[in-house]
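Re-run with default settings, no changes from the original entry. Doing this only to confirm the output is reproducible before filing.
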Amino acid sequence: MSKLISLLILTLAAQASPKTQQSDIAFDRLAHQLELIRNELELTVENRNSLSNDIERQRRESIDFDLFLRIPLETHDIKQDSALLKTIQNDLVKTSAANFKKVQFKGPWKKARSKIPKTIPFHESYKIPDSLLVDSRELTLEISFAKLPEQKPEQWIKNLQPKVRRLLVFTGQNRWNPKSKSQKIRTTIFRFRDIAYPEFQSPDLARFALPHKPQSPHQNASAARIQRYRQEVSRLWPQVQPYLDEVRLFALNDHRMSFYLKHVRFELDAAHRH
């Protein structure tokens, strides 16, 4: 019987006017959007235990990869420029045969003026822009070599990285100076901003009202689905409240680790030194 009804609906839709067909599509799209919200809410409740496990896994991974050592939180970073430079230079001296003539910052920390939104709709994904996730600062390394280095500076920085605590991202270089037997290499360091992932707003069901009164069997069927999904979203929203903070924490942790893995320049196995 259900197959016959579906066939009848499809037949009537095929015979409908272009205007009616457009309305049918609008009803279908609305029902589909509400279904996705319902599914996401349902999964959040069903996966609450695995979410806690995932956050614990993120915590272990951040330790394994020295995430907050290589990119410290702003509040935990060394405050004085001279002390920070000394720490970086000491690491470089210990891990390299090269003679570091000078390690200096080129300008202050770059901080974005814009801010992360305080709230976002639950059903809308939000990617934190890199400029709001981290502050960045240029660091110039002037290195003395007896002769023109065989390795390219970018590869040289990459080889140093497993032994240097701070993440250094190669950004450029000057030509090797045969008179001073030195070369300047430009790098960037980062620190994570002390931010929180936006809080979630409840789904605004007013945005998912019927565009107009159903005018075809197809629209009647879609309208019934829309009504059912609206009721389910209203029922599920209070149930997800205890888990939303964990959802936000997971999202923030994921953004931070993704940023690190995107910029890291050495084999990941090298990071597991513990």
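Residues 18-46 form the longest helix (29 residues). Confidence is low (pLDDT under 50) at residues 267-274.
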